[in-house]
Amino acid sequence: METAVLIDDHPCYQEKAHHHFARMHAPVAPICNISCHYCNPKFDCVNESRPGVVSAILSPEEALERLTTCSSRLPNLTVLGIAGPGDPLANPEETFRTFRLVRDAFPLLHLCLSTNGLMLPEYIDEIRSLGIRHVTVTMNAVDEQVGSQIYAHVRFNGKLYTGAEAASILLERQVEGIQRLTAEGVLCKVNSVLIPGFNDKHLPLVSETVKKLGAFSHNIMPLILSPGSRFHKDGVRAPEPVELADIRDACSIQMPQMRHCRQCRADAVGLLGEDLSQDSCFSKKDTADKAGKEAELLPAGETKAARTEAAASMEHEAGGTSTDWSLATRVAVATRGMGKINLHFGHATEFLIYDVAGREIRLAGVRKVQAYCNGTVDCAPEGKRAAMEESMELLQDCQLMLCSGIGAKPQERLQRAGIIPLVRKGDIEAELVESVRLMNLFRGNI
Ligand code: CLF
Ligand code: SF4
Predict the structure, then answer these.
(1) Which member of 157, 183, 191, 306 has the greatest number of CB atoms within 10 A?
(2) Does any ligand 2 atom lie closer than 6 A to the CB of residue 364?
(3) What pLDDT digit, counting tens, does each position of 240-275 carry?
(4) Candidate of 37, 48, 116 to mutate for ligand 2, largest count of ligand atoms within 8 Å of Cβ
(5) Of the candidates 86, 103, 25, 15, which has an alpha carbon nearest to the alpha carbon of residue 353?
(6) Cα–Cα distance for residue pair 369/366, rounded to 1 Å
(7) From atom 4 of ligand 2, which residue's Cα is the shortest distance away?
């Protein structure tokens, strides 16, 4: 199958597709077989998720039922992913039974798997026979000493390993898994969590290594600490947005970078930017609650019961662009999807950040914020002020803000910070080029 067919409607593998196509995650995998220092088992796997209340576990049959409901309401749903809340391959029975049920009932959906990679070599045949063509492996290090600072332990073949030995086993298994999958034509995306002071300087080597292994793209995600995790207790900090952007740029010399990841929940549903998992139409929360299945992550062993040209179309061909992005204008955009500017500044809980250089556009990242106005009549002024200041900090490197509407106060605050707010309602790409042109004209830059 051609790579274009595998990515054109996959919201994570093709940046443009994420405006239009939705995915559903089936939270069928509660157990994990390793321990990352940024993880607290009370939360979803941080390798794909934002820490939050852990997703309620579904049985494979319940997952199929939820998918049936979701697909009838979301005609743009193209992917069924399994990404936790633990590690899918530490729960092979549930994971593969879910994929089997889905493949039989919805043969046209892409099946997508996300794993830490420890058990990947064991399941290559299963992955092939199910026709899974998208696999994400989280690799934070390609050096056992660096890895030993990130992982507390690895549980493998019934034995607990720690330190450099644990990191070495994990790395060996990840490398073997990616090599064998890419040889089979599976598109392997590699996720890496950027942990300042631990692997920030090491990530270009990770990018170089995964390129040699034949991976499709590299998704460097900012560390979001789980409360109560070892790193949280030790005061390890999350990276600044600009640090993340710089490291992605450095790694893009080696590998195409994914810049639109939302670090979604293990039970996410919908477009990447609009998680509908908590919407009662999509979550069978009552079913899960009744069954008393609030997720509880358990350590393994304590079980309760072609890269091709298409990759280059990912806006950021590794080493292939001649655009000087250091001269680009950075623009924040408020959108609820479909490639349009269609969201009021006050309602935005995230902004897409674009760089615009002439007619060239690239997505630089996604930044989550607190909505300035949470929709209640009595939005407290202190809360609004705090949300505004947080947004200002996160958007400090932007020169323009495009949104479908904005109040007088935030407009004035943005201007004071040197960010020009513009109300626009059209297609993002066309409006980006035109707005930057107007801004430069106004400033006498052209
Ligand atoms: Fe889900 Fe992951 Fe498949 Fe996408 S998510 S299993 S590859 S369908 Fe996507 Fe979410 Fe980022 Fe993951 S935005 S966290 S990269
Ligand atoms: Fe937590 Fe396991 Fe995910 Fe690491 S791989 S973040 S330990 S659930």
Answers:
(1) 191
(2) no
(3) 999 999 999 999 998 999 999 988 888 999 888 777
(4) 116
(5) 15
(6) 10
(7) 36
